[in-house]
Amino acid sequence: MNVKLRINLLASRIVEFIKYDYNHLKYPLVLASQGAILVLQKLNKHSLAFKVASNIYRTGWAKSEQLGLDVARYYFKAHPQLGREITQKFINELPPLKNTEKFFKQPEAMLNGIITVLKQPNEDEKGALIINYSYYFPLFLRFFDIERVAKSFNIILEPSWAGFCEENILAYTLIDAPIFLQVYEKRDKQFIDKLQSNIIPIEVGPSWFINHNNFVPPTSGERDIDLLMVAAWAKFKRHGAFFKAVASLVKSKPDLKIVLVGYPVDMTKEQILELAALQKVERNIEIFEWITPQEVSELQKRAKVNVLWSKFEGNNRAIIEGMFCGTPVIMRKGHNYGENYDFINPQTGYFADEETFKHVYEMTVSRASEMDPNLYVMQNRNCKVGTRIMGDAIKSYELSQGRPWHNDLDIKVNDLHGMAYLERDEDYYADSYMALKACILSPSNSSNS
């Protein structure tokens, strides 16, 4: 028995219980948090007061959405000077991380990958750019003259995590320009709508922008992988809970083949396998680390079912990649805020929990010939459809402002490290990237931006 592992597993389970389970009963915790926020405001601890509200909003506890909205209105509508103080403190205190430190030295390295131009400005017609991943939003504000950029470009934000009552996003309410924001949770859409700011929500998300040319159904061969889980070695991905869910299935089918694909975050693959051993399913597992998208695609083509078992994250890409490969999905019931997503349907897959997983898996496999995940995403949820939705929203706004709209947005696709164009040669936007480079603030200005 690995005592340390069991203790860590229990600790993680307790944290998970507090954050995500029985949220409808947690209104007293929201009331207590509201009291703490009032005390912090009286003490002029506004950054901490907002941080408490942000964290409580993200939990999804009963009435937490109203608490988040009330506090956001207080700081970013009624008292914008305090909102500016909060966001400036947040931006200026951002530490360089492993994946961001090079941008502190060379902000221009964010261009064409993290900050991607989708439309060239032309005389009176504004261009458009998109910023990928939430943790780059404040870096854009820190290192670029945002007001100057906004004169030539409409700005689109593509958040990587659900729960939009946060500095990364609300800092943009203080910009004197429209900001277009991808929203993929109804709860966040309602929050942004009720805030009534300059932020304009667009109902798409990161998982819409997959390069479907790289993920296609198999033309031949048997699907010999029973279960595929593409998920980083991270606690929030809940591998341990997945192994618990699959244990009864393994007992009934001892030769069940499970393939895991990932990379280290706050866990290692050895720790993942230790979790599997606790449920006696380690012998059923084949594990791959840091493989290419092409290799992931080949595994998706061989899988009977693709699994997402986290309780909370952003807009997961791996399950949609699987759908392009014709692979149905089983998603953890209650994911994020418990929305019944339209892309989980009889054509594509089902919701399940630890108790129902075995039954849902067997039902999914038995219906394989009746399901067509590829058809669904090719018709309803892909980079071309997503780009059209974004373009229509921006076009509508621009025309309402009396500005012309002659050229549509170019199509971009996402990968693990940033964005690329689906078809356009990146040199086409060389002038736009040079113009954006000229908007980089001097070091003295960026440290006090």
From TrEMBL:
<dbReference type="GO" id="GO:0016757">
    <property type="term" value="F:glycosyltransferase activity"/>
</dbReference>
<dbReference type="InterPro" id="IPR001296">
    <property type="entry name" value="Glyco_trans_1"/>
</dbReference>
<dbReference type="Pfam" id="PF00534">
    <property type="entry name" value="Glycos_transf_1"/>
</dbReference>
<protein>
    <recommendedName>
        <fullName>Glycosyl transferase family 1 domain-containing protein</fullName>
    </recommendedName>
</protein>
<feature type="domain" description="Glycosyl transferase family 1">
    <location>
        <begin position="220"/>
        <end position="354"/>
    </location>
</feature>
